């Protein structure tokens, strides 16, 4: 009977956790943003766990579609100000965001939120006590001479030992949780115990940082080289895309995160999370047609830049893989190549496998993928042994690919470094734009499968007042000076609507001929700014 009651308590905890993590439960608990404003001063002078807890409580509103404007001026400004001033180092910022994402996962998919309440602690203690009392009563009954089968007795002791061990681990995990550490004072005796358990759990816990890869051309070549029955079987069970997904190591994951932090570090000290700031970094000017490309739908932009990246990597690095190159590129260029390839394949992975995380039309994105697969399949001679460069050259005769008209001869390492740097910058900007456009509800759903790179970037941008949760975020600013920009959602203190933040800007500039004759050319100078 005691074990049955303990089980009922455990089921009650789970039902309570599911109810509080549902959309209705999150909406109810985050409906009053002013409820957190009384504790802001305490949070600013407390530990990093306290600030992470405060951020997670505010994030409940983001998970149900609220924005910083609806949260109120206090939480919005403090969310940015404390993160900007308290954590100056890059490592400190990364650790803070990792802790916040971990606590967000606990809020949505574990009983951490329930166990932080008094009634939750009482349930946990009661469940443990009932299990121990049941074990003691069983042992007393055995000593009184009750006759039981030895096999049944052994099984009973095993079950009791396992249940008590699990309950003990649950208590230890609750004490070591950042949720508990946020409520403990540094002078308390439990704080030292929590620190010790936290370090032990942190060493044993493996965090999943997801940065899957999907190369569209490799997928097309593989599909064309495998039997049609195999491809149809994969499609029937829903693994036609996931079968060709692979994962990168954590090093590339942090390379890209550091690059995003470098962009965000350019924000001036006087920047508030509710203002608009423009910064420019010169982007490649070799292709004026990129103005038209960026003006199309986002899935077209990703598709075009993905093929553009594959084109240049195939041109300049095919010989490196075969070992026939006379002078291999320096390590810095090889690292840039890896970063460009990783970003390109990751964004294509999101478009193909998780299109809900991108501002794309799912049907249109699927049509682009099927278009390339159909072309490779219907053109003989493009089998598994055909290079990507040959496929792209043939494909460009039907569908134009940016950069296909460039000469393919060997360029200097300086040119290659410049080209790869600009390609990487474009991918980073597109990643940040997509992260800012993705809703908090979608990020919450994806946390159950691990910390996606785009979710990490989303939270970093949120701490800097960027993204649709803070202000309107656009992909491209108009090149026409007569076109007025529509204001953002956030209103500045004077009461004027702020201009939206854009990922790309286009202006005109003047080029002088070598013959000392000034001629006016209208070019598209792609500029990146936040």
UniProtKB/TrEMBL annotation:
Residues 2-218 form the DUF4220 domain. InterPro entries: DUF4220, DUF594. Keywords: Membrane, Transmembrane, Transmembrane helix. The keyword Membrane applies. Pfam families: DUF4220, DUF594. The chain crosses the membrane at residues 121-140, 152-179. This is OSJNBa0089E12.13-like protein. It comes from Zea mays. The lineage of its organism: Eukaryota, Viridiplantae, Streptophyta, Embryophyta, Tracheophyta. The gene is LOC100383095.
